[in-house]
Amino acid sequence: MTTLLILVASLLAAVLPTSLYVLIVWWFDRHEKEPLQLLAAAFLWGAVPAVLLAVGIELASDAPVTAFSGSYGEIVGASVVAPVVEEAIKASALVAIIVLVPGEFDGVLDGVIYGSIVGLGFAMTENVIYYVSAWGEGGVWSWSAIVMGRALVFGFTHAMFTSLTGIGLGLARGHTQPGVRWLYAAGGLVAAILAHLFHNLFLAAGEFCILSLLTDWLGLFLVVAIAVMARRHEQQWIRAELAEEVRLGVLTPDQYQNIITRRTTGPAPWRALARDAVELAIKRHQYARLGGGRGNRWADIVALRQRLVARRRALGDAAVERHRVCLTCGVLGDETEGACCRSCGAPWTQPTAREQRGEVG
Q1: What is each CA distance from 316 to 260, 270, 319, 361, in whole angstroms?
Q2: In whole angstroms, what is the distance from residue 221 CA to residue 21 CA?
Q3: Cβ contacts of 244 within 8 Å, gap of 6 or more
Q4: How buried is 124 (Cβ within 10 angstroms: 0-12 exposed, 13-18 middle, 19+ buried)?
Q5: pLDDT for position 16
Q6: Contact 101, 34 (CB under 8 A)
Q7: Cβ 238 vs Cβ 278: under 8 Å
Q8: What average pLDDT does the segment 153-160 reach?
Q9: CA dist., res. 128 & res. 113, Å (int)
Q10: CA 286, CA 283: separation in Å to the nearest integer?
Q11: pTM confidence score
């Protein structure tokens, strides 16, 4: 019974603060909420496979590290091996997102969001292990001290470490030159490893624990500052890109004002229109900076314009009842004015039955 009580208390002490931290990160992503299933996958990767892989590799390295480092083996293992192994494994989740669903990893802010989620998942499971061990070694007082330290004082450390990797990958996403992209990606991972290394080293030294606290909170402040700047920059170009969509007739001025001021509550079709509009702004920004690229961003832009017109029809907007988006030039036109797009001369494609009804996938 005592074992079960220890396990339940440790689980609650790990899960409850982590849930709050995840909600904070999710709330911060104001404009384009990342897919919940992708966030859940990132969290679970950090919570289960990443921890198991890290523990396995670190245990396997104990003997060689001890043989090489002698009496300093424990410090070297905690301060060098663990940061390199853990940050590399957590980084693999971010790389997998970029490779498998590149359209969902758009820049620095997404790097902070996904990096934080992976790190929080890893920290939650690691905390359970530490809590159970602390109770077994020193009883309830030792357990309470460890919970206070890991859940509150150092609650965001793993999120901060992996966010640094995410920032590097996010910066890499904004460049076309391979050398620059690799430099940013590697720099982010190295920053995460160094931050983790100093955290563990100062804690292992004992008397330098306060330095660990200072460096962790300085790193967290840096990540938050970068995320705030990235979000403000994102707000600026969302405004600019959607203003162009108003000029093209894809959005109305009222819709534009509601979206940029985040007045996006209301019926489900309106919320879907607002989400699609922000995604369109992101694709336009990427296309302007990076060109077509992987995933054919121009085709994505045209498809999103089509969806926005269909959303407006679903909301009963008669102004776009006969309007269609040209698949060739992407311009919105009235198909009653002729058999071809007046902008580029391409023939109109026949709308599908679902498009005629204003339905969107």
Answers
A1: 22, 11, 9, 18
A2: 15
A3: 284
A4: buried
A5: 95
A6: no
A7: yes
A8: 91
A9: 23
A10: 5
A11: 0.84
